[in-house]
Amino acid sequence: MVNKKIKRVPFGHPLFIVFSLFLLQPNLQAQKIDKHYTSSIQENGTLYFIKTIEGYKNAPKKTSLSFDITYLSSTDSAILNFTYLSNQISQIDSISFIHGNTSTNSVSSKLFIEAEKLNWEHRYSSKFSFSDIDLIFKSESPAKMRLFYENESMELVISEKTWSKKSEILRRIISMIKANN
Questions:
Q1: How many Å separate Cα 98 from the centre of its chain?
Q2: What dihedral angle (degrees, nearest 10) is formed by the CA atoms of 131, 137, 139, 143?
């Protein structure tokens, strides 16, 4: 007697194949956001700290910029603290996000400047409205940053791939903050 039972390979099952393709779609995967922010309850609201975002560069001038965001839920503004690495000391006046045809500017306050190997680490702080931060990171195309210093300005850019990852995480964090307010 011949056994006519069909043997199936689990990886060949049509549902397994469809499920695998679904998981491999980059836009369909949810980002895990808990490692990208912290929050704590304060007397006057919840304090959210969005951990350092890196990736902004000006290749010809060999400079880079990273930032973190602090937001207190009882206010309408977010503090953007940024670190600018350059081989020259610069007194930064202000910073701007350029997204689409819109520019969002803020005056910058120096926290410190110190030597970092062969470069100078500039640490500054700026204040943006929370709604502007939300709008900036909703942009599909990468937002550029422009630093203004000593009657000059410099543009820093971020790659499409890095922007896609970072802005998705920031959008999810901002959505969570808005849902909790």
A1: 14
A2: 110
59 DSSP 8-state letter: T
Nearest to 84 by CA among 150, 160, 137, 156: 156
pTM assigned to the model: 0.81
10 Å Cβ neighbour count for 39?
A: 17
Q: Are 100 and 85 in contact (CB under 8 A)?
A: no
Q: What is the pLDDT along the chain (181 residues), one digit of tens a residue?
A: 555 555 555 555 554 444 444 444 444 445 688 899 999 999 999 999 999 999 999 999 999 999 999 999 999 999 999 999 999 999 999 999 999 889 999 999 999 999 999 999 999 999 999 999 999 999 889 999 999 999 999 999 999 999 999 999 999 999 999 999 8
CATH number of 34-180: 2.60.40
* 117-155 exposure pattern, b = at least 16 Cβ within 10 A, e = fewer: eeebebebbbebebebbbbbbebeebbebebbbeeeebe
How many other CB atoms are there within 10 angstroms of residue 42's CB atom?
A: 11
In the chain, where the domains are located: 34-180
Residue pair 125/156 in contact (Cβ under 8 Å)? The answer is no
